[in-house]
Amino acid sequence: MNYDVLIVGAGFSGLVLAERLSSQLGKRCLVVEQRDHIGGNAWDEYDDAGVLIHTYGPHYFRTNSPRIREYLSQFTGWHPVDYRILSHTEGRYWSFPINLQTFEQMLGRPSTTEEWEKYLAAHRIAISAPANSEEVIISQVGWELYNRFFKGYTQKQWACHPKELDASVCGRIPIRTNRDDRYLSDSFQALPSGGYHRMFRKILAASPGVQVLLRTNYREVLPHVSWKQMIYTGPIDEYFDCKLGALPYRSLRFERESFSAEQLESRIPISGKRGFWQPAMQVNYPNENDFTRIVEVKHATGQSCDNTTIVREYPQAFGPGKEAYYPIPAPAPRQLYAQYAEMAATLQNVSFVGRLATYQYYNMDQVVGMALAEFDRIKKRETGNQ
Ligand code: FAD
Ligand code: UDP
User: Fold this and answer.
1) What atom of ligand 2 comes closest to residue 60's alpha carbon?
2) For a Cys staple, 20 with which of 113, 159, 205, 375, CB 3.0–4.6 Å?
């Protein structure tokens, strides 16, 4: 069978490129996906309790880019959410990310931005250019808050010391001197109103002639198809048979638990409202537990449903049979990745797009942006137009 483009992976990057290339350039595309569903790690689904859950961990869509928002808005409406989470340690809930409310909880009384800023000025460690994830936090808030909220969580999540990780890892988390306790700071924060699964199906419905092959490793189809160009969105080291050595990844184990309305009645003093198990869509557990967070995404989806489902997230080593969820943002893996990227750049007809193919800790909007930029490049090459 002849295709113009063979797309490996049906995540955000693969599907956006399938849609653009088929609808705008009339390309015949085959998308090959090894899982039994499209959408990659951003997939969501209704579980046995009827609760809409994010299958591979919470996926909070946010962006500052009007282009990315407008592009996706062709395929979905939006349910606006101010993502709010909590941290739980020392037997109590804390406002998180760290903000004036967290400081007030530490003091046990009301305070002001001025007093909080004074505390920070007295506790932060002077580091002009933080070089790792420990420095980026202690240079903003000092040791006490770093030890309470970041050190243990980061060690669990990445199985290494925060000093060994790029500053960008813990630097993702905002630290605020006002009362703003939203987890993210982007100008647009919302979930697809019908769920990610519907949005992905709509993207495919708008992709004329695109064929999708599920439960198939692309290597199985290589002998049976011809193609002019490949878009590869899987792990870059796997593409090259780990010739230069395997890149490290971090994996996760998700443990789900569902509760009926009756079971939830006794939780009202904790959750604060009927139909929920915990008081926020996500509670982080930096210190005392083996899991890093418990997610109850029903808080964010706004689904009206008597039952609820919580998901405990346990970090685990990556290896055979485990999913490569996170590239590891650290100097040694980055160097190895750079060598793979050099090999990738010599291939004329294969593009490497997305979180695993470029070994970057990218969010969904960044991946969509990358796919749209790759489309622009292909279009320019083929038509000479912007
Ligand atoms: P993926 O979604 O990984 O898709 C790649 C696809 O390729 C997969 O479906 C895989 O099965 C398939 N594939 C790989 N190899 C092969 C092969 N050999 N043959 C066939 N198919 C193959 N982003 C946010 O913006 N907000 C969040 O809150 C957020 N939370 C996250 C939480 C977790 C736990 C994780 C892991 C990620 C989170 N992300 C979040 C990031 C988000 O998941 C990614 O940015 C996005 O899904 C990446 O899309 P992708 O297409 O590059 O990769
Ligand atoms: N982090 C932490 N404590 C927290 C939340 C995050 O130390 O309570 C650190 C941790 O290293 C984590 C990183 O900040 O991996 C990024 O957190 P985020 O919630 O953005 O991670 P993701 O949702 O991508 O797993």
Assistant:
1) 23
2) 375
Q: How many residues does the chain have?
A: 386
Identify the structural domains of the chain with CATH numbers, from first to last.
Answer: 2-77+193-246+328-383 (3.40.50.720), 98-171 (no CATH)
Nearest CA to ligand 2 atom 7: 150
pTM above 0.70, yes or no: yes
In angstroms, the CA 340 to CA 358 distance is 9
CA terminus-to-terminus distance, the chain: 31
Q: What is the DSSP string of 286-305?
A: -SSSSSSEEE-THHHH----
HEC readout, 208-270 = CCCEEECCCCHHHHHHHCEEEEEEECCCHHHHCCCCCCCCCEEEEEEEEEEECHHHHHCCHHH
d(CA 100, CA 102): 5
Mean pLDDT of all residues belonging to the chain? 97
Quote the ligand 1 centre to 8 CA distance (angstroms).
12
Element holding 52 (H helix, E strand): strand 52-54
Q: What is the pLDDT of residue 385?
A: 55
Residue owning tokens 């971090």: 250
- CA 133–ligand 2 middle distance (angstroms): 11
Confidence of residue 384 (pLDDT cuts 50, 70, 90): confident
